[in-house]
Structures are given as C-alpha cells and as structure tokens.
Design brief:
264 residues, alpha+beta, OB fold (Dihydrolipoamide Acetyltransferase, E2P), 2 domains, five-stranded mixed β-barrel, 13 strands, 34% strand
Amino acid sequence: MTLNRGVIKPKGDDEMFIGWASAPAVDRRFLIGAMPLMLAGTTGLGWLVASELDDPGAGRWAQGATHVVEGVLSAKPYPMIRVADGAAPFGLRSVLIVAQGKCTSGLRLAEMDGRPVRASGVLIERKDRRMLEVPLSVGRWLAPLPVTGGAGALAAPAIESLGRVRLAGQIMDSKCFFGVMRPARGKTHKACAALCIRGGIPPSFWARDASGRESVLLMTDAKGGALSDEILPLVADPVEAEGEIVRVGDLLQFRADASDFRRV
C-alpha cells in the first residue's frame, strides 16, 4: 500500500520517522555528539553518589564454617559467653550469643547461666567484637564443661562506672552491624533492625565523633538490664540521651532507659 501524495499532502519538509528505516541524518549527528556526554555524566553521577555513602565497615559473617568457644555463659542482660583470653583487654573476651534468624529471645539458657560451657556456631565479627550465631535448639550447640578455678572471675567480671555522659548517635541491632548486613544502619535498615531487637538481639548504640572515630556501646536500661521494647520506634533514627557508661569485663555498656532517648 502506498501513500498518494496527491491525496494527503505533507505538512512540511520534516523527515518522517519510520521505525524500520535508518535514522534521519540530523538525529544521527545529535546522538553521536550527545552519547559521550551522557556516558560521562552518568559515570560522574554514580561516582558522586557512591562517594557520599558511609563505609560499611569490616564486618564478617563466616557462614559455612563452625566456630567453637569455651567459657562461662551469662544469660543477662543478653546471652553471651565470656572466654579467658590473655591477649584481650582485661584478660577476657565476651562473645554475644544470637539465634538464627530473629528469635534470640527463644533461647532457653537459664539452667546454664553462670556455668562453664562449650558452644559451637557461626562466627560473626567486626574488628574486636565477636558474636556466635546458634540454632534455636540449645542441645544442638551447647554442652556443659567441668567447673575450673577461673570460672568465678568469668561469671562475675569487674564492673566499673566511667561516669554519666550525653551521647548522640544511632540505635542498631548488633547482629546485622557486626557483619550479617553491610551497611546495617540508617533508614533503609530501620524495619530489619527493629525486628531483630524485638526478637531479643542486643541493641547497640553507634556514635561517631568529628574525626571519624566510632564507638559502639551495648545498650541496657538504667539498671543494667535488657532494654525494653519502648525503644523500637527510635531504632535507626538520629537520637541522643544522657546515661551512664559502665565497663563490665571487656564490654562498655550505655545505661539509659528508653524514655531517656529523643530524636535529634
């Protein structure tokens, strides 16, 4: 079928676009000139966005390998095993215990509280902080050990108050921050962090000073107990609070009730 120029007159001298035909010369010249500029622009924009992102840190989730620790189990304020380690600060290292998924509160550890144990699981670590991910069924990963002379010091480590301070920072779940997710802070991680903390994973308070140095403190209530779920709406938001910093063994705790925090 042909178009009869005598029946339908063209409206102008512009070249008509036909999908299966070659591009008009004027379009070809435009695209040849514009494509390098567009490529350079998108590359520069991608670099600019990436340069503004926070460093996710050196967290590691060692899936596929079983890690074994031996020490004294402490169930409060959050499950952990304190291991004698002469190379660690204060002669011990605390390894937090979390269950697979977001169900740490389902671990039944009261009978083993304060006793020497051997535990096996997946190691999660970030710098000098360690965590062991274990199955929900305690019998699959935890076994008692004979009581030794050093068990008492691990069960009741030295407690030192370092004074009251006002800190500004962000509330995170320790499991994701240690290495399960990178990055593990900010608005994009808010829902995941809130579910983790609701499920019993220890909350951490992350603060960074003007020079870029970061501090991560284990969060408890004002009496050193597990923080209540009232903190959940503030997770992953910029917040500040006044509280007490307390050293328990090798861990620093930030002790403040949920009602002491406010958004900034």
